[in-house]
Amino acid sequence: MKRLLLSMLIFMMCMGAKAQSGICVDNRRNACGVFVKMFAMDPAGGYPLGSINSVTFYVPAGVINCWNTVLTFQSGVGWITPTTILSSTTTFNWTDVSFQFDCPECAGGGGMSNPCSPNVFGGAPVWSSSCHSATWLPVCLAPLGNLTLTFN
């Protein structure tokens, strides 16, 4: 057991220099599914603001989807434009999200932005309507920071 813990610790220390920028989309407390599209930038990699757009993906009601790093997101969801985030990046940053609820009784949608980085929409890190709400945490997401989006 100690050997396993030591191996995991060494692995995590080695990963410290690699791309992080994990993302969790938490839709566990929502009765409706949600379509999500992420926006990001990686200036040192040659991808300025607005040039990295994810494929739109669906998170069913009652589900949380997580990707531990931007690299796992990249291989699992992917980008609309030909983009390759390198594991050595130090500047990758999630900047915005747009979303649409899949709900016959209240289908609205909107967007949120990281107020501590340049962003596409210029939006706030919170959103609400008469039947749904959403949050972007942490509110001030630094480059390589892990993001949690929560839909209610």
Describe the structure.
It is a single chain. The chain is mostly beta strands. It has one domain (19-151). 14% of the residues lie in helices and 38% in strands. The protein contains two helices and ten strands. The protein has helices at residues 2-15, 70-76; strands spanning 23-27, 33-42, 47-53, 57-59, 63-67, 93-102, 109-113, 126-128, 133-137, 147-151. The strands form two sheets. A five-stranded mixed β-sheet has the order 5-1-10-9-8. A hairpin with a 4-residue loop joins strand 8 (126-128) and strand 9. It is globular. The N and C termini lie far apart (39 Å). 30% of the residues are buried.
Features:
single chain, 152 residues, mainly beta, 2 helices, globular
Short description:
This protein is mainly β. The protein is 14% helix and 38% strand.
For the largest sheet, list the strands in their spatial order: 5-1-10-9-8
Q: Give the terminus-to-terminus CA distance.
A: 39 Å
Range of strand content: 35-45%
Quaternary state of the chains: single chain
Coarse structural class: mainly beta
